[in-house]
Amino acid sequence: MSEQIxxxxxxxDHKYKRAGKITVNAPASxxxxxxxxxxxxxxxxGSGTLRGDVRGPERLxxxxxxxxxxxxxxxxxxxxxxxxxxxxxxIAWCHPGHHRxxxxxxxxxxxxxxxxxxxxxxxxxxxxxxxxxxxxxNNQKAILKTLVNLKKVAxxxxxxxxx
Length: 163
Known about the structure:
The protein is of the alpha+beta class. It has helices at 28-36, 41-44, 127-132, 135-162; strands spanning 8-10, 17-24, 50-55, 65-72, 74-86, 90-94, 100-109, 112-120. Strand 1 (8-10) and strand 2 (17-24) form a beta hairpin.
């Protein structure tokens, strides 16, 4: 029987943040490459809101803008801007509401990386409004699913490279 893959909740340092972490058997560079290409996001999204049409650069960097089709109650398109960037270590983006999705990669060794994903509502224009929409709890669940999916995608990519 195979072991169930799980991500762990990370206690937030602010009431408007939610985070999770997981250990991935892949180098930080492999994981970062997945995160830095917005066309990959639908492959590991745990929220169920992303759709396939992405516009923007193939490789994100500080200040990059990218848009994607979304669905939450209704279809819509959202434009994001990369607001934090450290190659192979950290990437974060926000949309006009200013709340952020952040990924931080901490190498354990050359082939193992801890990934922390944070939904940061403290940067939002009106953080309490996100609470009314249940965004904090919904994003906490989505983070855990996303991290499990990201682990699967990155580790499958490593397996494919070895074969």
